[in-house]
Amino acid sequence: MADSSDSAEEQDSLIQTKRTQRTPLPFGQILPLLYLRFCDAAALYSTYPFINELLTSMAGGDSGKAAYYAGIMDTSRHASSLATVLLWSRISDYIGRKPVILMGTAAIAISALLIGMSTKFWILVASRCLYNALNHNGGTIKSALGEMTDATNRVDAFALVHAPWAIGSSIGPLIGGYFANPHIQFPNLFGGRLWQDFPYLLPCTVTFAITLLGFMTILFQFRENSASQPAPLRSLLTSRVVTTIYNYVAFALCHMAYTALQPLFLATPISVGGLELRPKQIGYVLGAYGFIDSLAQTFLLAPFIRRVALGNVFKCAVSAFVPIFLLFPLMNIYARDWAINGSPSSQALMWGLLIVQLTLLCTAEFGYGCMYIYITTAAPNSRSLGSVNGLSQTAIAVSRLIGPALATSMLGLSITKGWMNGYAVFNTCRFFPSFESRVLVPVMMTFAILYFTYALRPPTAVMHFIWYISAFSILRLLELLYNGCTSPLRDFPGSLSFNFLLENFLQMWTPRAGVYTLVSKAVKYVYMNMDLYHKPEGMAYDIRQTIGDGVLLMEDDAHKNQVNEEFDI
Protein backbone atom coordinates (compact mmCIF):
# COMPACT_ATOMS: atom_id res chain seq x y z
CA MET A 1 0.00 0.00 0.00
CA ALA A 2 2.85 2.35 0.84
CA ASP A 3 4.56 1.54 -2.44
CA SER A 4 1.38 2.38 -4.34
CA SER A 5 1.08 5.73 -2.55
CA ASP A 6 4.74 6.54 -3.23
CA SER A 7 4.34 5.72 -6.91
CA ALA A 8 1.26 7.92 -7.21
CA GLU A 9 3.12 10.86 -5.69
CA GLU A 10 6.01 10.42 -8.09
CA GLN A 11 3.68 10.41 -11.08
CA ASP A 12 1.89 13.56 -9.98
CA SER A 13 2.49 16.61 -12.18
CA LEU A 14 5.00 19.03 -10.77
CA ILE A 15 3.59 22.00 -12.52
CA GLN A 16 -0.11 21.81 -11.88
CA THR A 17 -0.06 21.03 -8.18
CA LYS A 18 -2.90 22.65 -6.29
CA ARG A 19 -1.05 23.01 -3.02
CA THR A 20 -0.49 26.55 -1.82
CA GLN A 21 2.26 25.62 0.66
CA ARG A 22 5.58 24.50 -0.76
CA THR A 23 7.88 22.24 1.21
CA PRO A 24 11.07 24.14 2.13
CA LEU A 25 14.13 23.03 0.22
CA PRO A 26 16.82 21.24 2.32
CA PHE A 27 19.57 23.70 1.42
CA GLY A 28 22.05 22.14 3.85
CA GLN A 29 22.12 19.03 1.67
CA ILE A 30 21.49 20.70 -1.68
CA LEU A 31 24.31 23.26 -1.52
CA PRO A 32 27.19 20.71 -1.52
CA LEU A 33 25.62 19.07 -4.59
CA LEU A 34 25.26 22.44 -6.33
CA TYR A 35 28.90 23.25 -5.56
CA LEU A 36 29.91 20.00 -7.27
CA ARG A 37 27.96 21.07 -10.34
CA PHE A 38 30.04 24.25 -10.28
CA CYS A 39 33.29 22.26 -9.99
CA ASP A 40 32.33 20.00 -12.86
CA ALA A 41 31.52 22.92 -15.17
CA ALA A 42 34.60 24.92 -14.13
CA ALA A 43 36.88 21.98 -14.87
CA LEU A 44 35.22 21.29 -18.23
CA TYR A 45 35.00 24.88 -19.49
CA SER A 46 38.43 25.97 -18.21
CA THR A 47 39.90 24.14 -21.21
CA TYR A 48 37.79 25.99 -23.79
CA PRO A 49 39.99 29.10 -24.17
CA PHE A 50 43.16 27.10 -24.85
CA ILE A 51 41.97 23.73 -26.19
CA ASN A 52 42.18 24.89 -29.81
CA GLU A 53 45.74 26.16 -29.26
CA LEU A 54 46.69 22.87 -27.59
CA LEU A 55 45.19 20.77 -30.38
CA THR A 56 46.69 22.99 -33.08
CA SER A 57 50.15 22.64 -31.52
CA MET A 58 49.69 18.87 -31.43
CA ALA A 59 48.55 18.98 -35.07
CA GLY A 60 51.63 20.93 -36.17
CA GLY A 61 49.73 24.17 -36.78
CA ASP A 62 47.12 22.65 -39.14
CA SER A 63 43.65 24.08 -38.26
CA GLY A 64 41.81 21.42 -40.25
CA LYS A 65 43.74 18.61 -38.57
CA ALA A 66 43.08 20.22 -35.18
CA ALA A 67 39.34 20.03 -35.89
CA TYR A 68 39.69 16.31 -36.63
CA TYR A 69 41.63 15.85 -33.38
CA ALA A 70 38.81 17.62 -31.53
CA GLY A 71 36.33 15.19 -33.05
CA ILE A 72 38.42 12.17 -32.04
CA MET A 73 38.83 13.49 -28.50
CA ASP A 74 35.13 14.24 -28.04
CA THR A 75 34.10 10.91 -29.55
CA SER A 76 36.49 8.97 -27.32
CA ARG A 77 35.41 10.62 -24.10
CA HIS A 78 31.71 10.24 -24.83
CA ALA A 79 32.22 6.62 -25.84
CA SER A 80 33.77 5.97 -22.42
CA SER A 81 30.78 7.68 -20.82
CA LEU A 82 28.37 5.55 -22.84
CA ALA A 83 30.10 2.37 -21.68
CA THR A 84 29.93 3.16 -17.96
CA VAL A 85 27.06 5.55 -17.17
CA LEU A 86 24.34 2.95 -16.67
CA LEU A 87 26.66 0.80 -14.57
CA TRP A 88 27.43 3.57 -12.09
CA SER A 89 23.82 4.74 -11.99
CA ARG A 90 22.68 1.24 -11.03
CA ILE A 91 25.46 1.02 -8.46
CA SER A 92 24.25 4.28 -6.91
CA ASP A 93 20.84 2.64 -6.41
CA TYR A 94 22.50 -0.28 -4.60
CA ILE A 95 25.19 1.40 -2.45
CA GLY A 96 23.85 4.97 -2.25
CA ARG A 97 24.72 8.24 -3.97
CA LYS A 98 27.66 9.42 -1.85
CA PRO A 99 30.36 6.86 -2.86
CA VAL A 100 29.58 7.36 -6.56
CA ILE A 101 29.67 11.15 -6.22
CA LEU A 102 33.02 11.01 -4.38
CA MET A 103 34.56 8.83 -7.08
CA GLY A 104 33.33 11.15 -9.82
CA THR A 105 34.74 14.19 -8.05
CA ALA A 106 38.14 12.52 -7.70
CA ALA A 107 38.07 11.73 -11.44
CA ILE A 108 37.44 15.41 -12.24
CA ALA A 109 40.46 16.51 -10.18
CA ILE A 110 42.87 13.89 -11.57
CA SER A 111 41.75 14.52 -15.14
CA ALA A 112 42.41 18.26 -14.75
CA LEU A 113 46.04 17.64 -13.78
CA LEU A 114 46.54 15.19 -16.65
CA ILE A 115 45.29 17.74 -19.18
CA GLY A 116 47.75 20.31 -17.84
CA MET A 117 50.63 17.86 -18.27
CA SER A 118 49.58 16.62 -21.73
CA THR A 119 52.27 16.90 -24.37
CA LYS A 120 50.96 14.20 -26.67
CA PHE A 121 47.51 13.71 -28.12
CA TRP A 122 46.98 10.25 -26.61
CA ILE A 123 47.59 11.61 -23.10
CA LEU A 124 44.96 14.28 -23.68
CA VAL A 125 42.47 11.68 -24.93
CA ALA A 126 43.22 9.41 -21.96
CA SER A 127 42.59 12.23 -19.49
CA ARG A 128 39.21 13.03 -21.06
CA CYS A 129 38.24 9.34 -21.12
CA LEU A 130 39.11 9.03 -17.42
CA TYR A 131 36.92 12.05 -16.70
CA ASN A 132 33.92 10.58 -18.51
CA ALA A 133 34.34 6.95 -17.48
CA LEU A 134 34.36 7.61 -13.73
CA ASN A 135 32.48 10.90 -13.40
CA HIS A 136 28.72 10.52 -13.66
CA ASN A 137 27.86 13.09 -11.05
CA GLY A 138 25.28 14.76 -13.28
CA GLY A 139 22.78 11.91 -13.16
CA THR A 140 23.61 10.93 -9.58
CA ILE A 141 23.10 14.47 -8.30
CA LYS A 142 19.73 14.68 -10.04
CA SER A 143 18.72 11.37 -8.46
CA ALA A 144 19.71 12.70 -5.03
CA LEU A 145 17.70 15.89 -5.62
CA GLY A 146 14.70 13.86 -6.71
CA GLU A 147 14.83 11.97 -3.41
CA MET A 148 15.09 15.19 -1.38
CA THR A 149 12.13 16.96 -3.01
CA ASP A 150 8.43 16.42 -3.62
CA ALA A 151 5.83 17.71 -6.07
CA THR A 152 5.61 21.11 -4.36
CA ASN A 153 9.26 22.15 -4.57
CA ARG A 154 10.84 20.03 -7.31
CA VAL A 155 10.58 22.76 -9.94
CA ASP A 156 12.47 25.14 -7.66
CA ALA A 157 15.16 22.57 -6.91
CA PHE A 158 15.80 21.65 -10.52
CA ALA A 159 15.76 25.31 -11.54
CA LEU A 160 18.82 25.67 -9.29
CA VAL A 161 20.68 22.75 -10.86
CA HIS A 162 21.74 24.63 -13.96
CA ALA A 163 22.72 27.85 -12.14
CA PRO A 164 25.98 26.55 -10.61
CA TRP A 165 26.77 24.88 -13.92
CA ALA A 166 26.32 28.23 -15.64
CA ILE A 167 28.48 29.96 -13.02
CA GLY A 168 31.13 27.29 -13.47
CA SER A 169 30.96 27.73 -17.23
CA SER A 170 31.52 31.44 -16.55
CA ILE A 171 34.41 31.10 -14.09
CA GLY A 172 36.03 28.20 -15.94
CA PRO A 173 36.84 30.10 -19.15
CA LEU A 174 38.15 33.00 -17.09
CA ILE A 175 40.51 30.61 -15.30
CA GLY A 176 41.61 29.01 -18.55
CA GLY A 177 42.03 32.27 -20.44
CA TYR A 178 43.72 34.21 -17.63
CA PHE A 179 46.18 31.57 -16.38
CA ALA A 180 47.07 29.89 -19.70
CA ASN A 181 50.65 30.52 -20.89
CA PRO A 182 51.75 31.99 -17.54
CA HIS A 183 55.38 32.23 -18.71
CA ILE A 184 54.17 34.88 -21.18
CA GLN A 185 51.51 36.62 -19.11
CA PHE A 186 53.38 36.55 -15.78
CA PRO A 187 57.07 36.11 -16.65
CA ASN A 188 58.27 37.36 -13.26
CA LEU A 189 56.26 34.74 -11.34
CA PHE A 190 56.11 31.83 -13.77
CA GLY A 191 59.17 32.19 -15.97
CA GLY A 192 60.60 28.77 -15.13
CA ARG A 193 61.09 25.87 -17.48
CA LEU A 194 58.15 23.96 -15.99
CA TRP A 195 55.61 26.55 -17.15
CA GLN A 196 57.20 26.77 -20.60
CA ASP A 197 57.02 23.01 -21.07
CA PHE A 198 53.47 22.83 -19.67
CA PRO A 199 51.84 26.18 -20.57
CA TYR A 200 48.37 25.01 -19.47
CA LEU A 201 49.32 23.40 -16.17
CA LEU A 202 48.53 26.48 -14.06
CA PRO A 203 44.80 26.80 -14.99
CA CYS A 204 44.43 23.03 -14.58
CA THR A 205 46.01 23.24 -11.13
CA VAL A 206 43.51 25.93 -10.14
CA THR A 207 40.57 23.73 -11.20
CA PHE A 208 42.18 20.80 -9.33
CA ALA A 209 42.18 22.86 -6.12
CA ILE A 210 38.56 23.95 -6.63
CA THR A 211 37.46 20.35 -7.19
CA LEU A 212 39.43 19.08 -4.18
CA LEU A 213 37.44 21.47 -1.99
CA GLY A 214 34.22 19.98 -3.41
CA PHE A 215 35.47 16.47 -2.61
CA MET A 216 36.08 17.42 1.02
CA THR A 217 32.68 19.13 1.28
CA ILE A 218 30.81 16.03 0.11
CA LEU A 219 32.95 13.76 2.29
CA PHE A 220 32.20 15.59 5.53
CA GLN A 221 28.85 17.36 4.97
CA PHE A 222 26.66 15.33 2.65
CA ARG A 223 24.54 12.74 4.44
CA GLU A 224 24.36 9.32 2.86
CA ASN A 225 20.97 8.09 1.68
CA SER A 226 20.09 4.56 2.62
CA ALA A 227 20.63 2.07 -0.19
CA SER A 228 17.65 0.21 -1.64
CA GLN A 229 16.81 -2.68 -3.92
CA PRO A 230 16.18 -1.09 -7.34
CA ALA A 231 13.58 -2.29 -9.80
CA PRO A 232 14.63 -4.44 -12.80
CA LEU A 233 15.60 -2.45 -15.88
CA ARG A 234 12.88 -4.04 -18.01
CA SER A 235 10.17 -2.70 -15.72
CA LEU A 236 11.49 0.86 -16.21
CA LEU A 237 11.04 0.93 -19.98
CA THR A 238 7.53 2.38 -19.90
CA SER A 239 6.23 4.54 -22.73
CA ARG A 240 6.57 7.61 -20.55
CA VAL A 241 10.24 6.94 -19.77
CA VAL A 242 11.11 6.07 -23.38
CA THR A 243 9.37 9.16 -24.78
CA THR A 244 11.09 11.44 -22.28
CA ILE A 245 14.49 9.96 -23.09
CA TYR A 246 13.88 10.39 -26.81
CA ASN A 247 13.24 14.09 -26.31
CA TYR A 248 16.32 14.42 -24.14
CA VAL A 249 18.48 12.77 -26.81
CA ALA A 250 17.21 15.01 -29.60
CA PHE A 251 17.71 18.14 -27.50
CA ALA A 252 21.21 17.11 -26.41
CA LEU A 253 22.19 16.46 -30.04
CA CYS A 254 21.57 20.12 -30.82
CA HIS A 255 23.31 21.41 -27.72
CA MET A 256 26.37 19.17 -27.95
CA ALA A 257 26.91 20.08 -31.60
CA TYR A 258 26.88 23.74 -30.58
CA THR A 259 29.22 23.35 -27.60
CA ALA A 260 31.70 21.41 -29.74
CA LEU A 261 31.72 24.09 -32.44
CA GLN A 262 31.66 27.24 -30.32
CA PRO A 263 35.24 27.29 -28.94
CA LEU A 264 36.66 26.20 -32.29
CA PHE A 265 34.65 28.86 -34.13
CA LEU A 266 35.77 31.61 -31.75
CA ALA A 267 39.46 30.66 -32.12
CA THR A 268 39.58 29.65 -35.81
CA PRO A 269 41.15 32.23 -38.17
CA ILE A 270 38.70 34.56 -39.90
CA SER A 271 39.95 33.46 -43.31
CA VAL A 272 38.68 29.90 -42.78
CA GLY A 273 35.35 30.74 -41.15
CA GLY A 274 35.94 31.72 -37.50
CA LEU A 275 36.34 34.91 -35.47
CA GLU A 276 40.05 34.52 -34.54
CA LEU A 277 39.68 35.66 -30.93
CA ARG A 278 42.56 35.33 -28.47
CA PRO A 279 42.24 32.88 -25.53
CA LYS A 280 41.75 35.75 -23.09
CA GLN A 281 38.94 37.21 -25.25
CA ILE A 282 37.29 33.80 -25.49
CA GLY A 283 37.49 33.52 -21.71
CA TYR A 284 35.82 36.91 -21.25
CA VAL A 285 33.05 36.10 -23.74
CA LEU A 286 32.23 32.72 -22.24
CA GLY A 287 32.62 34.08 -18.71
CA ALA A 288 30.14 36.89 -19.29
CA TYR A 289 27.71 34.45 -20.88
CA GLY A 290 27.97 32.02 -17.97
CA PHE A 291 27.21 34.79 -15.47
CA ILE A 292 24.13 35.97 -17.37
CA ASP A 293 22.95 32.41 -17.98
CA SER A 294 23.22 31.59 -14.27
CA LEU A 295 20.96 34.53 -13.45
CA ALA A 296 18.45 33.53 -16.13
CA GLN A 297 18.33 29.90 -14.97
CA THR A 298 18.01 30.85 -11.30
CA PHE A 299 15.40 33.61 -11.51
CA LEU A 300 13.52 33.07 -14.78
CA LEU A 301 13.16 29.34 -15.39
CA ALA A 302 10.77 28.37 -12.58
CA PRO A 303 8.42 31.39 -13.04
CA PHE A 304 8.52 30.86 -16.81
CA ILE A 305 7.52 27.20 -16.42
CA ARG A 306 4.69 28.04 -14.01
CA ARG A 307 3.35 30.74 -16.32
CA VAL A 308 3.50 29.16 -19.79
CA ALA A 309 3.74 25.40 -18.95
CA LEU A 310 6.64 23.00 -19.17
CA GLY A 311 5.97 21.74 -22.69
CA ASN A 312 5.88 25.23 -24.20
CA VAL A 313 9.17 26.16 -22.51
CA PHE A 314 10.77 23.04 -23.95
CA LYS A 315 9.50 23.81 -27.46
CA CYS A 316 10.95 27.32 -27.27
CA ALA A 317 14.27 25.91 -26.09
CA VAL A 318 14.52 23.48 -29.01
CA SER A 319 13.43 26.07 -31.57
CA ALA A 320 16.12 28.52 -30.46
CA PHE A 321 18.83 26.35 -32.02
CA VAL A 322 17.73 27.20 -35.56
CA PRO A 323 18.76 30.89 -35.43
CA ILE A 324 21.72 30.00 -33.18
CA PHE A 325 23.37 27.99 -35.96
CA LEU A 326 22.26 30.51 -38.59
CA LEU A 327 24.28 33.24 -36.86
CA PHE A 328 27.65 31.46 -37.17
CA PRO A 329 28.23 32.22 -40.89
CA LEU A 330 26.73 35.70 -40.54
CA MET A 331 29.23 36.59 -37.82
CA ASN A 332 32.12 35.43 -39.99
CA ILE A 333 30.86 37.44 -42.98
CA TYR A 334 31.02 40.64 -40.92
CA ALA A 335 34.34 39.58 -39.37
CA ARG A 336 35.82 39.19 -42.86
CA ASP A 337 34.59 42.60 -43.89
CA TRP A 338 36.09 44.09 -40.73
CA ALA A 339 39.43 42.30 -41.27
CA ILE A 340 39.69 43.23 -44.95
CA ASN A 341 38.17 46.71 -45.06
CA GLY A 342 38.52 47.78 -41.43
CA SER A 343 34.82 48.64 -41.24
CA PRO A 344 33.85 49.61 -37.66
CA SER A 345 30.19 48.94 -38.42
CA SER A 346 31.01 45.37 -39.43
CA GLN A 347 32.97 44.91 -36.22
CA ALA A 348 30.02 46.20 -34.20
CA LEU A 349 27.63 43.91 -36.08
CA MET A 350 29.89 40.92 -35.49
CA TRP A 351 29.91 41.50 -31.73
CA GLY A 352 26.19 42.32 -31.76
CA LEU A 353 25.35 39.04 -33.48
CA LEU A 354 27.51 37.18 -30.97
CA ILE A 355 25.51 38.76 -28.15
CA VAL A 356 22.24 37.79 -29.87
CA GLN A 357 23.47 34.22 -30.30
CA LEU A 358 24.42 33.89 -26.64
CA THR A 359 21.07 35.37 -25.61
CA LEU A 360 19.28 32.74 -27.68
CA LEU A 361 21.51 30.11 -26.08
CA CYS A 362 20.19 31.16 -22.65
CA THR A 363 16.71 30.37 -23.93
CA ALA A 364 17.87 27.06 -25.40
CA GLU A 365 19.43 25.93 -22.13
CA PHE A 366 16.06 26.20 -20.40
CA GLY A 367 15.49 22.83 -22.06
CA TYR A 368 17.81 21.08 -19.62
CA GLY A 369 15.77 22.19 -16.62
CA CYS A 370 12.63 20.96 -18.36
CA MET A 371 14.14 17.57 -19.06
CA TYR A 372 15.44 17.11 -15.50
CA ILE A 373 11.88 17.55 -14.24
CA TYR A 374 10.38 15.21 -16.80
CA ILE A 375 12.93 12.48 -16.16
CA THR A 376 12.33 12.63 -12.42
CA THR A 377 8.54 12.45 -12.78
CA ALA A 378 8.81 9.69 -15.39
CA ALA A 379 10.49 7.33 -12.88
CA PRO A 380 7.98 4.76 -11.55
CA ASN A 381 9.11 5.42 -7.95
CA SER A 382 11.95 6.92 -5.93
CA ARG A 383 13.83 3.60 -5.73
CA SER A 384 14.36 3.65 -9.49
CA LEU A 385 15.53 7.28 -9.86
CA GLY A 386 19.16 6.30 -10.30
CA SER A 387 18.37 3.69 -12.93
CA VAL A 388 16.05 6.00 -14.89
CA ASN A 389 18.68 8.74 -14.80
CA GLY A 390 21.21 6.14 -15.88
CA LEU A 391 19.06 5.17 -18.87
CA SER A 392 18.67 8.82 -19.84
CA GLN A 393 22.40 9.49 -19.41
CA THR A 394 23.21 6.42 -21.52
CA ALA A 395 21.00 7.74 -24.29
CA ILE A 396 22.51 11.20 -23.90
CA ALA A 397 25.97 9.68 -24.24
CA VAL A 398 24.91 8.55 -27.71
CA SER A 399 24.00 12.14 -28.62
CA ARG A 400 27.26 13.35 -27.11
CA LEU A 401 29.05 10.72 -29.14
CA ILE A 402 27.38 11.63 -32.42
CA GLY A 403 26.85 15.38 -32.07
CA PRO A 404 30.41 16.63 -31.42
CA ALA A 405 31.97 14.07 -33.77
CA LEU A 406 29.61 15.01 -36.59
CA ALA A 407 29.92 18.75 -35.96
CA THR A 408 33.72 18.91 -35.60
CA SER A 409 34.30 16.51 -38.50
CA MET A 410 32.02 18.62 -40.68
CA LEU A 411 33.94 21.70 -39.54
CA GLY A 412 37.21 20.08 -40.58
CA LEU A 413 35.78 19.13 -43.98
CA SER A 414 34.22 22.57 -44.41
CA ILE A 415 37.62 24.18 -43.83
CA THR A 416 39.80 21.79 -45.82
CA LYS A 417 37.38 21.26 -48.72
CA GLY A 418 35.96 24.78 -48.76
CA TRP A 419 32.37 23.51 -48.70
CA MET A 420 29.96 26.46 -48.78
CA ASN A 421 32.90 28.78 -48.18
CA GLY A 422 33.55 26.95 -44.90
CA TYR A 423 29.95 27.28 -43.71
CA ALA A 424 28.68 23.76 -44.51
CA VAL A 425 28.82 22.62 -40.91
CA PHE A 426 26.63 25.47 -39.65
CA ASN A 427 24.04 25.02 -42.40
CA THR A 428 23.89 21.32 -41.57
CA CYS A 429 23.59 21.70 -37.80
CA ARG A 430 20.82 24.25 -38.33
CA PHE A 431 18.50 21.36 -39.20
CA PHE A 432 19.22 19.34 -36.04
CA PRO A 433 16.14 20.78 -34.24
CA SER A 434 14.00 19.07 -36.86
CA PHE A 435 14.89 15.78 -35.17
CA GLU A 436 12.42 16.85 -32.50
CA SER A 437 9.59 16.40 -35.01
CA ARG A 438 8.96 13.61 -37.48
CA VAL A 439 10.05 15.48 -40.56
CA LEU A 440 13.32 13.68 -41.27
CA VAL A 441 12.33 12.73 -44.82
CA PRO A 442 11.74 16.28 -46.12
CA VAL A 443 14.71 17.61 -44.17
CA MET A 444 17.04 15.00 -45.64
CA MET A 445 15.70 15.77 -49.10
CA THR A 446 16.54 19.41 -48.47
CA PHE A 447 20.05 18.31 -47.46
CA ALA A 448 20.34 16.51 -50.79
CA ILE A 449 19.48 19.67 -52.73
CA LEU A 450 21.85 21.69 -50.57
CA TYR A 451 24.91 19.52 -51.12
CA PHE A 452 24.05 18.80 -54.75
CA THR A 453 23.97 22.51 -55.47
CA TYR A 454 27.30 23.24 -53.84
CA ALA A 455 28.99 20.23 -55.39
CA LEU A 456 28.28 21.77 -58.81
CA ARG A 457 29.51 25.18 -57.57
CA PRO A 458 27.21 27.66 -59.36
CA PRO A 459 29.23 30.85 -58.83
CA THR A 460 26.45 33.39 -58.51
CA ALA A 461 24.03 31.20 -56.64
CA VAL A 462 26.10 30.35 -53.56
CA MET A 463 25.19 33.11 -51.12
CA HIS A 464 21.63 33.40 -52.42
CA PHE A 465 21.00 29.71 -51.94
CA ILE A 466 22.17 29.98 -48.32
CA TRP A 467 19.54 32.64 -47.76
CA TYR A 468 16.81 30.47 -49.26
CA ILE A 469 17.79 27.59 -47.01
CA SER A 470 17.80 30.05 -44.11
CA ALA A 471 14.30 31.16 -45.02
CA PHE A 472 13.17 27.54 -44.96
CA SER A 473 14.74 27.12 -41.51
CA ILE A 474 12.87 30.15 -40.25
CA LEU A 475 9.62 28.74 -41.59
CA ARG A 476 10.35 25.47 -39.77
CA LEU A 477 11.04 27.49 -36.63
CA LEU A 478 7.66 29.19 -36.92
CA GLU A 479 5.99 25.82 -37.39
CA LEU A 480 7.69 24.49 -34.26
CA LEU A 481 6.68 27.51 -32.22
CA TYR A 482 3.09 28.08 -33.31
CA ASN A 483 1.88 24.69 -34.50
CA GLY A 484 3.72 22.57 -31.96
CA CYS A 485 4.78 20.29 -34.82
CA THR A 486 1.31 18.72 -34.79
CA SER A 487 0.10 19.80 -38.20
CA PRO A 488 1.08 17.73 -41.25
CA LEU A 489 3.86 19.33 -43.26
CA ARG A 490 1.79 19.09 -46.42
CA ASP A 491 -0.71 21.48 -44.78
CA PHE A 492 2.02 23.96 -43.90
CA PRO A 493 2.30 26.63 -46.62
CA GLY A 494 5.95 27.34 -45.83
CA SER A 495 7.10 24.16 -47.56
CA LEU A 496 5.30 25.14 -50.76
CA SER A 497 6.60 28.68 -50.74
CA PHE A 498 10.13 27.36 -50.17
CA ASN A 499 9.90 25.07 -53.21
CA PHE A 500 8.36 27.83 -55.32
CA LEU A 501 11.20 30.20 -54.44
CA LEU A 502 13.82 27.50 -54.98
CA GLU A 503 12.48 26.49 -58.38
CA ASN A 504 12.21 30.04 -59.74
CA PHE A 505 15.50 31.11 -58.21
CA LEU A 506 17.40 28.21 -59.79
CA GLN A 507 15.85 28.92 -63.18
CA MET A 508 17.10 32.52 -63.02
CA TRP A 509 20.55 32.16 -61.49
CA THR A 510 22.12 28.82 -62.41
CA PRO A 511 23.43 27.38 -65.68
CA ARG A 512 21.90 23.98 -64.91
CA ALA A 513 18.36 25.19 -64.31
CA GLY A 514 16.75 22.13 -65.85
CA VAL A 515 18.46 19.74 -63.42
CA TYR A 516 17.64 21.86 -60.39
CA THR A 517 14.03 22.34 -61.48
CA LEU A 518 13.65 18.59 -61.84
CA VAL A 519 15.05 17.99 -58.35
CA SER A 520 12.93 20.71 -56.77
CA LYS A 521 9.78 19.34 -58.42
CA ALA A 522 10.62 15.88 -57.08
CA VAL A 523 11.05 17.26 -53.59
CA LYS A 524 7.79 19.18 -53.85
CA TYR A 525 6.06 15.96 -54.89
CA VAL A 526 7.48 14.22 -51.80
CA TYR A 527 6.29 17.06 -49.58
CA MET A 528 2.80 16.98 -51.05
CA ASN A 529 2.28 13.22 -51.06
CA MET A 530 3.92 11.93 -47.91
CA ASP A 531 1.99 9.30 -45.96
CA LEU A 532 4.10 9.93 -42.87
CA TYR A 533 1.33 11.99 -41.34
CA HIS A 534 -1.64 9.88 -42.37
CA LYS A 535 -4.35 10.21 -39.73
CA PRO A 536 -6.65 7.20 -39.37
CA GLU A 537 -10.31 7.92 -38.81
CA GLY A 538 -11.43 7.97 -35.21
CA MET A 539 -7.95 8.71 -33.88
CA ALA A 540 -6.51 11.93 -32.53
CA TYR A 541 -2.97 13.26 -32.62
CA ASP A 542 -1.82 13.82 -29.08
CA ILE A 543 1.33 15.88 -28.79
CA ARG A 544 1.10 16.85 -25.16
CA GLN A 545 1.89 13.49 -23.64
CA THR A 546 5.28 13.74 -25.35
CA ILE A 547 6.14 17.12 -23.82
CA GLY A 548 5.05 19.03 -26.90
CA ASP A 549 8.33 18.20 -28.62
CA GLY A 550 7.04 17.14 -31.98
CA VAL A 551 6.99 13.37 -31.52
CA LEU A 552 3.75 12.30 -33.12
CA LEU A 553 1.78 9.79 -31.07
CA MET A 554 -1.76 8.61 -31.75
CA GLU A 555 -4.01 8.02 -28.78
CA ASP A 556 -7.74 7.49 -28.54
CA ASP A 557 -9.77 10.51 -27.49
CA ALA A 558 -10.51 9.26 -23.97
CA HIS A 559 -6.86 8.71 -23.15
CA LYS A 560 -5.95 11.98 -24.80
CA ASN A 561 -8.26 13.87 -22.47
CA GLN A 562 -6.85 12.03 -19.46
CA VAL A 563 -3.24 12.88 -20.37
CA ASN A 564 -3.96 16.49 -21.19
CA GLU A 565 -5.83 16.94 -17.92
CA GLU A 566 -2.85 15.53 -16.02
CA PHE A 567 -0.19 17.65 -17.68
CA ASP A 568 -2.29 20.67 -18.69
CA ILE A 569 0.30 21.69 -21.23
How would you characterize this protein structure?
The protein is mainly α. It has a domain at 25-224 and 237-417: Growth Hormone, Chain: A (Up-down Bundle), CATH 1.20.1250.20. Helices cover 75% and strands 1% of the residues. It contains 26 helices and 2 strands. The protein has a two-stranded antiparallel ribbon.
CATH overall fold name of the domain at 25-224 and 237-417? Growth Hormone, Chain: A
> How many beta-strand segments?
2
- What ranges have pLDDT less than 50 throughout 5 or more consecutive residues? 1-19, 434-468, 474-569
Instruction: Identify the overall geometry.
Output: globular
Question: How many strands, which pairing sense, and closed or not: the largest β-sheet?
Answer: 2 strands, antiparallel
SSE order, one letter for each helix or strand: HHHHHHHHHHHHHHHHHHHHHHHHHEEH
What Rg, in angstroms, do the CA atoms define? 24 Å
- How many DSSP H or I helices? 26
Under the CATH scheme, the architecture of the domain at 25-224 and 237-417 is Up-down Bundle
CATH superfamily assignment of the domain at 25-224 and 237-417? Answer: MFS general substrate transporter like domains
